[in-house]
Write a structure and sequence with these properties.
alpha/beta, binds iron/sulfur cluster, 305 residues
Length: 305
Amino acid sequence: MAKEIEVFTASELQTFKDCPQKWYWIYKRGLHPLPTANQLMGSAVHLGIAMKFQGQENWREEIDILFRKEAPVASEIGDLYLKKEIAKILVEKFPIQKFRGQVIPEVKFEELIKRPGKVSGLKLKRIAGKVDGILIDHEGKNWLVEHKTTALQASDLIPRLVIDSQVLIYLAFFPLELSGSVLSVIQKPRLRLKKNELPDEFLERIRLDVDESNFVLEFNFVDRDLVEKTRREVADLIKIISDCSRKNIFWKNTSRCSLWGGCPFYQLCSSGQEDEDYMRQRFQVFETKHPELEEKIKEEEEVPF
Ligand code: SF4
């Protein structure tokens, strides 16, 4: 019987680098933390921008649908309405005219992982993902488009994104020659709801506050050495993950437990017991390793240009 192909994603590899035990909870046990209101806002911004690039005008309705679908499982429901409306303001003001060329949004890909000169052992491993977009410029060159929403100053995020592991992995494995990346940073508004301020008054302040300084776009030519190094690192990392999986040994990186408001798996890691009710209440449980890639890539979808 043919051996199943194992698929890895950039965020999965980053999770393992952050904490192998966290990788175990998510990718071995299928426990996916419920989305936060902020994560939902980021997804809504990505969705709205992709639809704008496709010329679809019903992106506001689709953002409403996304929030309706995800809201019952979102882990913070308090400010969902505001987050949804702020996402719409960001999409509305997003400067698609600055992308000179044709942008094909949300392109999926799947590619074999091969370490240069060493193929054995990795033949059945693939890297898969969905890039935010591919820009085809006026000379016919292809560029990876990556949008990131941030609470930081937009321009401060660019230097980090140049060496961001997801961006590098996409540059290394996307099955077309890429000239580089278009890093698109979307800075979330910093205003806060004032005491006694009505939500609609607050949203009007936000609408007036968001301007072109909330959106930074930077073109970076690909660094071939960095990309080659990324290919080798990915191949090595996947061997380590496969070894850990075979031996069922996942070490805990406790320096990560209290970052970003606390790891959602802390209770499971610290109690040493697996309470099924707790797991069902706090996580979405998936049978498959990558539910986000469930929709199988169709042949004609793979490289639509
Ligand atoms: S609680 Fe700490 S050790 Fe456990 S998965 Fe999270 S980061 Fe890793």
